[in-house]
């Protein structure tokens, strides 16, 4: 029935799309040829349209069969009380199309459709045809070379397009309203300007890639717009998805300038990755002269280039048809999968079956996995289809072509946007059905009992090798462990270890001369883009290499300490390290972290939640807007993250059985047997497992093997033989009675942190002062609004701390993400930098400082508190490091507690605060501030 539902909707959507495209003046065969290979394609479209254009008698049987099956689905929907708005409208259109069919089946539904749409599609198909792809080939062959290109709009698609043009050797000068994006473009070697007007001077081609028609109009004709300063003969490429009518009107306005400004209608399709790779599908139309002037640029950006006859507006008409089908197919996938859930079908199994069924579409295959994973990381947002199907609605109205199914799909996307999901991935339209009916499409793997799983494992290796690890490691040379920590939380399991926040060669030489077993370098690379993280790791490795050459006998193993829930720049950072240090015998992947409840068993990485084990790929961490992933099996995860460079079957594994039954010697033998350049994952379910592996790895190193480790915190303490010690309290540090309040900074947005904050507020009530930072104000509004918000928080914070009130400053809990991982990182940066500025301006010395969240704690330590080095004293709670900042910091001697965003139960944060807090009473000044602010 799920397949029958999809067939019915796709049938009617194909009819609506073809008639709308033909009414727009596009040859139906051209539409078919392009859409069949585009994101708007479906198996029904590919099968139906040729029958439609040739008036194949089998079309009648196709229609009757589709209507009959849709009728059965409608009956079932009534029996299970489940709304099917798309199929309901499609079914009525199927009935309408059948109304001309006589009992003997001699009459054609084409008569009904011709009367409804006012188009004879068979006659249109008989008109002279041309090859849009061959026209494009001719265009490229005859195109003129372009020297200087202006680019306006560095959003998700625009940034990829502009950066690819740079890589292709074009001189590109760009503008975007968002300054950090322009800075990123400048880092790649591009030029930037402060307005569209400045961009437009002296360019041969101006590319517009903005979000909508109003933005396109503004950058061309608004204040400091581009058009008034364009040189005569300049070509303007409009690549935004806009209505054909807008393009036609824009062309007339440019012609009215009487300066031979040429417009090229060139909407694009393919997504962010294809934009950056130069493999987009581009439909283009305009005058022959305009196309010849821009052919070299369009060719550089595209893998498939089509020239559509009909002048400006024709290409956008084809894009409109594609978006009609794409939008309907996403919405129909949501309706189908929700219906499957109501029928108590296993949704993942339904998806597998549908990949081979007639009701399959490209969008079904691409978007349903997002629904199954409940992962709405925005690759293409709900609001995009609110806009695009709005274009379809407007153009169909102007053309008097009824598009019933498209209109319903449009309303579903509008409903999603109105519900607050507009910036979510467009697959989130399924949430409209889920909210309305209570079903859940998400196909989760079964959760396991932690106790049952751990008890099923073999007994641990009988000897604890932890006491012998340091003597073994230092047996033959000064072999140090250098940990590059992508945020400060990597010190969760160590004590009496130094942390550097800067890494000049001289500082590294100083560390090596101290002969430490280990030291940390805080990179904070998780807050950076992949490119910047790679450059940073390369720089540090070069400095380490130079420093080691100045200290005789020194050797070291690099650990890239990363998140135990698999977030971070892998394999980029590992690639960067190898590019400096040379190929390793193996990469070691070991995310086990006992204190955080992270276990790797049978190659599956789990996150413990109370007494359950949840596969990591099913957790909120896997849905991270920047570092999201699908796989819980670490071998599959390596293949996923390396994008197939390292296949699952090429990944070696050290099992718990090997660790517990054969011990360190077997680990050493296994590591020594690996082919050079291998990737090896380590299973572990206890600290003893970790110590056994570390012992075997050290033995392999003593035999000359070199390893690069990507691990969580537990590996570090095992590798250097550190045993845990009890949590540190104020008395352990000899702190005197508190004269000021403590400062708690919360930047982490993960659900666990939100629950911990709620529990903290519940336990402390009015004795805790809470100041919320508006994420929207500091990341999405003007600089004036941002500064006003920062000043408000600083004034309150100073007053509360002076009044001996423990003060919680936290970001608003609603997660705001960008349309791409890069944009999400930029939002994170703006929020983090606001917290830094707040702490930097607070001049009341707190009794203690807690920073919640990895990126937050790093930025607060290095940028707000100006610490260049620190010593890890131990932990304030299991998995929660406590640092003593260096004397150069703003508040030397103040305990700095680095609280990871994903560690501890709901009461963990409250426990730490309770250990450090001091009772106090409200001052008169504080009470007045509360009233006034």
From TrEMBL:
Any single GO molecular-function term of the entry would be: kinase activity
Keywords in UniProt for this one?
Answer: ATP-binding, Carbohydrate metabolism, Kinase, Nucleotide-binding, Transferase
- What residues does the 3-hydroxyisobutyrate dehydrogenase-like NAD-binding domain cover? 1-104, 313-433
Q: Which residues form the Four-carbon acid sugar kinase nucleotide binding domain?
A: 743-909
Its transmembrane ranges are none
- The residues forming a coiled coil are none
Ranges for the Four-carbon acid sugar kinase N-terminal domain?
A: 481-718
* Name of this chain's protein: Ketose-bisphosphate aldolase class-II family protein
Q: Which family does it belong to?
A: Belongs to the four-carbon acid sugar kinase family.
| 6-phosphogluconate dehydrogenase NADP-binding domain mapped to chain residues | 148-307
Name the InterPro entries on file.
Answer: 3-OH-isobutyrate_DH-rel_CS (IPR002204), 4-carb_acid_sugar_kinase_N (IPR010737), 4-carb_acid_sugar_kinase_N_sf (IPR037051), 6-PGluconate_DH-like_C_sf (IPR008927), 6PGD_dom2 (IPR013328), 6PGDH_NADP-bd (IPR006115), HIBADH-like_NADP-bd (IPR029154), NAD(P)-bd_dom_sf (IPR036291)
